[in-house]
User: Fold this.
Amino acid sequence: MSATVITRILAMGRWEPDARGRMIRVAVELFAERGFEQTTAGDIAERAGVTERTFFRHFADKREVLFDGSNTMARTAHDAILGAPDELSPLDAALAGMVAGGSLLADRRDHAARRSQIIAANPSLRERELLKLAAMVDATAEALRARGIAEPTASLAAHSAVTVFQIACGRWVRADEPADLAAHIAQTAAVLRALA
Amino acid sequence: MSATVITRILAMGRWEPDARGRMIRVAVELFAERGFEQTTAGDIAERAGVTERTFFRHFADKREVLFDGSNTMARTAHDAILGAPDELSPLDAALAGMVAGGSLLADRRDHAARRSQIIAANPSLRERELLKLAAMVDATAEALRARGIAEPTASLAAHSAVTVFQIACGRWVRADEPADLAAHIAQTAAVLRALA
DNA sequence: TCGAGCATGTCAGTTACTGACATCGACCAT
DNA sequence: ATGGTCGATGTCAGTAACTGACATGCTCGA
Assistant:
């Protein structure tokens, strides 16, 4: 139906062919403008020039649109851990995974900060973020087990590394003078080691 | 209206006066019988002899009915940390909080196991559990800060302690021969210390 | 040119919640 | 006792997040 085509043309200044990408971009816009709860799935779909049904075919639920890259990041971490030097301790191997995963965000600090603000403003988004972090813990633990690390060491190291990642990310996006995410990870990891 | 009274009398063998407690008990029953998604809020309300609206006045959402005690546990941990001996390290103080919080579960291992099975079977319940654990991390970190511990040490120790708690709980409910939860916590904490 | 396959549109339905208002019993002051 | 407030509940109507079933149109290889 050409009506939707017209909607599309009116909606964006320049045409962006990938519907999925459009929905993600538009969702971030709307969430930032009026908040997550105040934005309906229909709103996002409309501004992206698709149907609400199409939105839900691409994203399992409304929150998911904010977490599109998270699987990739977990897989990246996983693979990096598998490829890390044998002599690394479990914690160091896991941290290497975090650095690798984090490198995917390297050139998108402003986007990450934006997203992080939206998520912080809504408990149900925070909930989803925790689930994604838990998936990252699982992927990390599995990679460690593949390196021959037994439980509960694998889980503990995975949890520790992801915690470091999480805290480092928070400091990274909030930092006044931008430093590398990897630097924040190293720094936070050092504090962790001093705990025991 | 006496119809609901009749429903109530038919629903339970013996009369249990506390509506909230009834809803919780009934919800666990139904979730175990037919699963979380297959149970509507109306089902729970009906079997508990109340209205769906009443259910939602007691619980912010359907999942919340499974997490009633979690605030109490976080507060207990918080208070225990504040009251712990000054000479304890941040991690040890946080772990003392976990033991205190865990003591609330001491005599309900079977209930905890039941609940844990239900939660494990449903991603959205797992999500809510993660949120509750995050609240426990927050409470723990706050208590540590009140003891004069600075960031990010406070957060790191809090995360570490709650991770230990989480893993220890899992092993506790799954253990063949029942040991103390506190024992599991101590044991898991020892593994954590060996990481660094 | 046909047909398979895939992304999308359309439409109707279920269920999780929410707001507004009425009711009812307990308890308290007069 | 009488009236009044308060807290918990019932009733009802509404919104929005999803879901299933089916139709349509576009692309691409045989």
Notes: The mean pLDDT of chain B is 92. Chain B has two domains: 2-65, 68-195. Residues 123-146 of chain B form the longest helix (24 residues). The CA atoms of residues 3 and 10 of chain B lie 11 Å apart.
